[in-house]
Amino acid sequence: MAFQTTKELRIKITMRPKLQSILCLLIWIHANNTLASGPGTDAATFLTIGFGSRAQSLGNALVALANDASSSYFNPAGLAQARGGLNFSREIQASRSSWFQGIDINQLAWARYHPSATSWALAATNLSVDDLEWRSMESEQPEGYFQAGDLSLGISAARTFQGPISAGVTLKIIQQRIAGAQGEALAIDAGTQYSFRAWDQKFSAGLAFRNLGTRLKLGSSSSPLPLSIHAGLAYQGLINQVLEFSFDETRLTNISIGTEYWFLGILGLRGGYWHPLAGSSDSGTNTFIGLPARPGLTGGLGFIVTQSFGLDYAFVPFGDLGLAQRLTMSYRF
After folding, report:
1. How many domains is the chain built from?
2. Which of 20, 256, 318, 325 lies deepest, with the highest CB count within 10 Å?
3. CA within 13 Å, CB half, 172
């Protein structure tokens, strides 16, 4: 297996069996156009990872239920709905995930809510992997090491129109680097939410597209960003229920469902299930983690520590690769 750097130097990577899964993981997460150049591949697949623990534990089915600082990723229109019954106008949300094989994901969002004006947010996502080994021939000792990293910086704005309808947009800068190569791109996300009542129950519907933007160039090749469209429906009651459908440019790629129950208004129990459809992972853009995933369960917990401070935890099992876990802290004031 080989890849090209910006200096057009072709390097053969020979790995011991236990490292083969790591290489496969990196091919999907980082710079698909450089590592696995070919038709249909997308760059910056880290953009499909999602934001925060709540969504991950719900199978990332949050386009219709987004109502906090993480809305800047899932559906910026949710920023206009993020008032709830609490007396706050600002929120800070910080998330960290230490994945298997030394992959670290750090996320930070700051939101300002205005009930009768424009709500807005700033958000950042950083993914990094250090000390990756490379070899030009089969050997026990590596000839060197390289690093890989991804960064996304975004600004979002949203407001309510005609009462139950809200709309929002996110503008973001994307940077990707691996083995000395670096590339940038610009992208836009946009979405809408509609809250309504049926059978005397509260529902919400959401529609959003993500990563519509310029091509990201690394070395001598460039690839499009992982454009996706998401449509969902949520029931908001004693037990929140969410359903979401994800599409790429031509087809339905993924179905996700999630359930959230708050015990005594303090402890949240969450579970989710995502189902990638057959043939939808050909381009490497299918799943919410940037990997060609199999159907699987997600889960997590939420804790209301004080009226202003909360903790969220999520986990996703990945078989032989290990367990991906994420912890998120939020502070509202």
Report:
1. 1
2. 256
3. 28
Please give the torsion angle defined by the CA atoms of residues 77, 78, 81 and 86, in that order, rounded to the nearest 10 degrees.
-150
Alpha-carbon distance of 57 to 17, in angstroms, equals 31
| Calpha distance 20→36 (Å, rounded) | 15
Measured CA to CA, the distance from residue 188 to residue 134 in angstroms comes to 35
What is the C-alpha to C-alpha distance for residues 119 and 112, in angstroms, rounded to an integer? 6
Beta bridge partner(s), residue 47: none
Q: Helix or strand or coil: residue 295?
A: coil
Q: DSSP letters along 50-86, please?
A: -SSHHHHHTTT--TTT--STTHHHH-GGGGGGTTTTS
pTM of the model: 0.81
The answer to whether 283 touches 248, Cβ cutoff 8 Å, is yes
Q: Give, for all 333 residues of the chain, the pLDDT tens digit.
A: 333 333 333 333 333 434 444 444 444 344 343 333 344 456 777 888 888 999 989 988 999 999 999 999 999 999 998 754 456 789 999 999 877 666 788 999 999 998 778 999 999 999 887 766 666 677 777 777 777 789 999 999 999 987 789 999 999 999 988 777 788 999 999 999 999 999 989 999 999 999 999 998 877 778 899 899 999 999 998 899 999 999 988 888 889 999 999 998 899 999 999 888 755 444 433 344 444 445 678 899 999 999 889 999 998 776 666 677 899 999 998
Question: Which CATH number fits the domain that encloses residue 256?
Answer: 2.40.160.40
Domain range enclosing 227: 2-332
H or E element that contains 17: helix 17-29
